[in-house]
Amino acid sequence: MKKPFTQGAVWRALWHRNFALFLAGQGLSLCGTWMQSLAQSWLVYRLTGSPLLLGLVGFASQAPVLAFGLFGGVVADRWPRHRLLIATQTFSLIQAVALAGFTLSGQITVPWILGLAALLGLINAVDMPVRQSFIAELVPRADLPSAIGLNSSVFNAARIIGPSMAGVLVATVGEGVCFLLNAISFLAVIGCLVAMRVPPRPRAIQENAMVFLAEGLRYAMRTPHVRAVLALIAVLSLTAMPYTVLLPVFAGEILHSGANGLGMLMAASGVGALAGALRIAQRKTIRGLGTVIARAGVVFGAGLLALATTQVLWLSILVLVAVGYGMITGMAGCNTLLQSLVPDQLRGRVMSLYTLFFLGTAPIGSLLAGAIAARAGTPLTFAAGGLGAILGAVLFWRALPGIRRHVQEHGLLPPEEFVPH
After folding, report:
1. Is 2 helix (H, G, I), strand (E, B) or coil?
2. Rg over CA atoms, the chain
3. In 175-312, alpha helices (H)
4. Helices marked H in 15-143 — which ranges?
């Protein structure tokens, strides 16, 4: 039977049943996740009014990835990823139920928020590398750009829908309802995972875990495209990505727009991010992707510099569309580049490094951003993040000739399919 999608279509990965199920479940669950993210940030800001504590909650939710992210990659390469995902999503459901219960009963405090945020971070330390590497099991390599782009698109469509709904719900019925709806949404993704028909994957040779981990680290250190991507991700996560942690302060103190305004700001960033993800999804190959990633980093940084100068809600919304576009075009591009060139037997460990540098350095950035904002103000913190993003993009651009030579010399892909430039 002829496929209804052409090879160059954005939607071609949806022809694969398992990926379609994966995407449907993720879409519903991620709406709940973004609702919880906004509601939790606003809850902390409402209880404390402190940008430093907002940064501390961001640190607590992401620090476990820094501590245990590499372990998650080892697990992803040694055990069935499908079963691991069902387990991590079930634990995430339990975490959301606990957060909803404490909030709705009026017993929620900042220490409880910090503890539950840390628990979710520990779950994500395993879930993120498993989920990222699992996508490659659902589609053939030729459809990876479509699959990764569509996955990012759903992530960012949820980023539009979730915060918009949460802004209204927080203002009318409170944060606890958002946490409860997030818990319910996990049932969708667990149901879709159970409905998949995933062929058994041969288990890796059960060598010593440290030897297994060292093999992945050696590969990453010796491979130009992996080194360059991880360095760019680290710079962006440390300097630019923490802008999201400070959006409640920006909405409350600079724009005076409240929870509804915060929802609109996050949704605007999601609109731009969705456009960027769809741009990656429509690519037939990864030829020229290096240039796209570098330019996206510049757009991300320039957007943050512009955001630092705005004090009007509608103008901030427009700027955040550009910020979201640059951020996700770069992130999804990096993900596609890695997954297209990394051997399957190393995929989990390499994607755990991606997760480590993406989320693991973010807690340090969140603390740093919170401390700078407490002393120098939120706009200056945005500006510093923008300069960091532009610097990272320039360094990545300079690494592209070396990546091109490595790909050609090692025959990683056919010459007509990919030459980064």
Report:
1. coil
2. 20
3. 175-195, 209-222, 224-239, 247-249, 258-281, 289-307
4. 17-48, 51-78, 81-104, 110-138
Instruction: State the Cα–Cα distance between residues 386 and 232, nearest whole angstrom.
Output: 14
Query: For the segment 208-221, what is each residue's pLDDT rounded down to a tens digit?
Result: 667 767 777 888 88
Supply 315's token pair: 């103008």
Q: Of 122, 70, 65, which Cα lies nearest the Cα of 92?
A: 122
Q: Are 62 and 363 in contact (CB under 8 A)?
A: yes
**C-alpha distance from residue 258 to each of 38, 134, 389 (Å):** 12, 39, 28
User: With pLDDT > 70 as the criterion, what percentage of the chain qualifies?
Assistant: 91
DSSP labels, 162-197? HHHHHHHHHHHT-HHHHHHHHHHHHHHHHHHHHH--
Quick check: 183 and 36 in contact, CB under 8 A? Answer: no
pLDDT at residue 386, rounded to an integer: 95
* pTM score, whole prediction: 0.71
- Among residues 177, 190, 185, 187, the alpha carbon closest in space to that of 101 is found at 177
Residue 382 belongs to what H/E stretch? helix 378-410
Burial level of 205, CB count in 10 A (0-12/13-18/19+)?
exposed
Q: From CA 377, how far away is CA 129, in angstroms rounded?
A: 35
Distance CA(118)–CA(297), nearest Å, equals 29
Residues near 60 by beta carbon (within 8 Å), at least 6 away in sequence = 114, 115, 117, 118, 121, 363
Q: Which position has the token pair 């928020």?
A: 113
What b/e string do you get for 82-109 counting C-beta neighbours within 10 Å, with b at 16 or more?
Answer: bebbebbbebbbebbbbbbebbbeeebe
Are the beta carbons of 352 and 72 closer than 8 angstroms? yes
| Distance between CA atoms of residues 241 and 239, nearest Å | 6
Compute CA distances 114 → 7, 43, 132, 355, 404, whole Å. 46, 12, 26, 21, 44
**Contact at 8 Å (CB) between 138 and 126?**
no
